């Protein structure tokens, strides 16, 4: 587990639950419902949509959209769902592009935050192929300090895999972390941190940047 991320994750989830009662903006409400599940909450919703997208069109119609939200147990009434759908269906075609939807749902981040997240990503992505794998981590991350390695429960590879699983999509863990997954994860963490300065200090300390 990354230093601090579990704690931030908890704080962020608590904060999201608290803010839910205060906001009336339907997109913000949906965002907060996802974040109330932790930093990976928005990715989880994306995964539900991907499963439903049988024809691989990367689009959803209203019926699929509502079904996805229900499958993910998001509390939402039909009027609110229609309002959100209309916001995303910019051209009025009756379908929404769910990649665009997920990017918009992600909590907004300043340029400075995005840059420090990318710096951490590049440090971990030893091979520079845009994906972080166990191979990449061997050169950057010392598994031997992990308590479960020290007491013999886990091998080095298991430590690495658990580490990658933090950032991976919750229901689709493949041991590879893409730039987008990493960015989505930290957008969740970022939502609980008020100032850029504090976020950047936290990232620098966590990743020794």
Automatic annotation (TrEMBL):
Gene3D superfamilies: EF-hand
SMART domains hit by this protein: EFh (SM00054)
Keywords: Calcium, Metal-binding, Repeat
GO molecular function, one term: calcium ion binding
UniProt cross-references to CDD domains, sorted A to Z: EFh (cd00051)
Domain of life: Eukaryota
Residue intervals of the EF-hand domain: 40-75, 76-111, 112-147
Keyword Metal-binding belongs to the record: yes
Name the UniProt record assigns to this protein: CAPSL protein
Organism name: Podargus strigoides (Tawny frogmouth)
Gene field: Capsl
């Amino acid at each position: 587990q990354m230093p601090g991320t579990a704690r931030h994750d908890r704080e962020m989830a608590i904060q999201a639950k608290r803010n839910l009662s205060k906001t009336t903006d339907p997109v913000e409400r949906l965002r907060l419902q996802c974040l109330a599940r932790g930093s990976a909450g928005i990715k989880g919703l994306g995964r539900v949509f991907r499963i439903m997208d049988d024809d691989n069109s990367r689009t959803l119609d209203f019926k699929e959209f509502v079904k996805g939200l229900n499958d993910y147990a998001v509390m939402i009434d039909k009027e609110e769902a229609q309002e959100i759908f209309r916001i995303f269906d910019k051209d009025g075609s009756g379908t929404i592009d769910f990649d665009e939807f997920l990017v918009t749902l992600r909590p907004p981040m300043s340029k400075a935050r995005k840059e420090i997240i990318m710096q951490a990503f590049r440090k971990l992505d030893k091979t520079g192929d845009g994906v972080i794998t166990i191979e990449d981590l061997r050169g950057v991350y010392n598994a031997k300090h992990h308590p479960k390695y020290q007491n013999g429960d886990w091998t080095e590879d298991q430590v690495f895999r658990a580490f990658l699983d933090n950032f991976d999509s919750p229901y689709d863990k493949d041991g590879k972390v893409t730039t987008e997954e990493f960015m989505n994860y930290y957008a969740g963490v970022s939502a609980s941190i008020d100032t850029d300065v504090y976020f950047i200090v936290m990232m620098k300390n966590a990743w020794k940047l």
